[in-house]
Write a structure and sequence with these properties.
Blueprint (H helix, E strand, L loop, with lengths): L1 H27 L4 H27 L2 H6 L4 H17 L6 H29 L26 E2 L2 E9 L2 E8 L11
Antiparallel strand pairs: 1-2, 2-3
Helix pairs in contact: 1-2, 1-4, 2-5, 4-5
């Protein structure tokens, strides 16, 4: 879990540090005038905007926000993309294949992030569910207040059997004739 959380916190700084590395790598490893223009006008903006876009896609997933940790697929994809981007910054004899590899991995990581976001949104696994109890009534094990009270179509319940303390969940309930489908 610590590695997934480390990647979660690394995503935003990476948007700034990886483009800077490309500039530093060009200067240190004497990339030449042609690669300088490529680095300055294409690589730096592409890595910066690409990393920001991928970070937003990853952080848009409810499970990532709730756990403050990325998935193992994200760890693998970002580790590979960042390693290839760092390797491109050395401007060595393998520059062209590394560049093509970094571009392919970045595009694959984009589609992987979209797929994960879509999967969570479609299946509902990432729904943030809150249950709460009313101050006046208790909660039965089934998650319904002892009085069966609902407030504005929301059934309240509290569960406190987790390690982290109370978990509050709000469940929407449909009233007859409202036209809503009960879940």
């Amino acid at each position: 879990m610590w590695l997934r959380r480390a990647f979660f916190h690394w995503l935003i700084p990476a948007a700034f540090l990886l483009p800077i590395w490309l500039l530093v790598g060009w200067g240190v490893f004497q990339g030449g005038a042609g690669p300088f223009l490529w680095v300055l006008f294409i690589a730096v903006p592409s890595v910066f905007l690409g990393q920001l876009l991928l970070t937003l896609l990853v952080r848009a997933r409810p499970t990532v926000r709730a756990q403050r940790a990325v998935s193992w697929w994200d760890v693998a994809g970002f580790a590979l993309w960042h390693a290839l981007t760092i390797a491109v910054g050395f401007f060595g004899p393998w520059f062209a294949p590394l560049l093509v590899g970094a571009i392919i991995v970045a595009v694959a990581l984009f589609w992987l992030s979209l797929w994960q976001l879509w999967s969570e949104a479609r299946s509902g696994t990432g729904r943030i569910v809150l249950r709460y109890s009313t101050a006046s009534g208790g909660v039965t094990p089934g998650g319904v207040t002892s009085e069966g009270n609902t407030f504005d179509g929301v059934r309240a319940a509290r569960e406190s059997n987790t390690r982290d303390g109370d978990v509050i969940v709000l469940s929407e309930t449909a009233q007859p004739g409202e036209g809503r489908v009960s879940h």
